[in-house]
Amino acid sequence: MKRILVTGATGNIGRQVVAQLRVTGCRVRALSRSPQSANLPHDVEVVRGDLSAPETLDECLEGVDAVFLVWVAPIAAAAAALERIASRAERIVFLSSPHRTAHPFFQQPNALVSVHVGIERLVETSGLRWTFLRPGAFALNCRNWWAPQVRNGNVVRWFHGAAATAPIHEHDIAAVAVRALCDEGHGGMEYVLTGPESLTQHEQVHIIGDAIGRALRFEELSPESARQQMLTMMPASIADMLLKAYAAAVDRPALVTSTVADVTGTPARCFRHWSVDHASEFLTQT
């Protein structure tokens, strides 16, 4: 029975990885800086540790076979953290980004890319068997950006409504991660993950409206107005990156891959499926 350490276990993807690993028969260990507030199932072993403090990882890694890595710590700590992981585990699955994908949406300047590139280089030279997950646009972004507006009315005021993405359900990202953690044949693979369909932001808003039983309308904002709104939710560097990325995706189809189906045997969930799963979050504060 494998023991798998999940970092980022209290985040949107990490929680899904934990949930899906629990039904595989693997022993699941979750890394948390605050175990008392992790709110994970009782059969998950929650351990205190911090990727930005590599000296806290030794006990967390004891007896671990594989690691699911979500990196949100300063890059300066990465070399020491990866060295500790490599001294104990055999396999690592890293949640990265599609920065090697040629589609313009993924090629805009992005500070996070340099972090992902640095982590990948360390992983590749660590001696671990590695798999890189490269999800495209997260469907969850629609909740994070639009749910506050939808809870207060039927208009979503946003930018570049004609920009198309292929939003991916967090369940599907986790499903690929679980296969890479548990099964053979995934070493050295770089999986670009998307939802099954290219949809403009206009279309995504309408689908959410169908899911919640209300007719929603997309109202186009200028990039300048949108940036001011975005600065209440995110740093300026992220806002500027998103504005450029979505501008590059206007009036062109999104990249769509079959990777979720290829790896898991089950087609990726469509955006309508995601919208139904998350309908309550557009109606009431969570």
**CA gyration radius, whole angstroms:** 19 Å
| Share of helical residues | 25-40%
- H-E order: EHEEEHEHEHEEHEEHEHHHH
The spatial strand order of the largest sheet comes to 3-2-1-4-5-6-9
Q: What number is the mean pLDDT?
A: 95
Strand content: 15-25%
Shape type: globular
Largest sheet: 7 strands, parallel
Please state the oligomeric state of the protein chains shown. Answer: single chain
Helical segment count: 10
Low-confidence parts: none
Q: Structural class per helix/strand content?
A: alpha/beta
Let me know the number of strands. 11
> Could you give the distance between the termini?
36 Å
Give an overview of the whole structure.
By secondary structure, the chain is α/β, with parallel strands linked by helices. The protein contains ten helices and eleven strands. The strands form three sheets. The chain has a seven-stranded parallel β-sheet with strand order 3-2-1-4-5-6-9, sandwiched between helices. Helix 2 links the parallel strand 4 (66-69) and strand 5 (91-95). The two termini are 36 Å apart.
Describe the protein's topology.
Layout: E1 3-6, H1 12-22, E2 27-32, E3 45-48, E4 66-69, H2 78-88, E5 91-95, H3 111-124, E6 129-135, H4 140-151, E7 155-158, E8 164-165, H5 170-182, E9 189-193, E10 199-200, H6 201-212, E11 217-220, H7 223-230, H8 236-248, H9 259-264, H10 271-277
Parallel strand pairs: 1-2, 1-4, 2-3, 4-5, 5-6, 6-9, 7-11
Antiparallel strand pairs: 8-10
Helix pairs in contact: 1-5, 6-10, 7-8
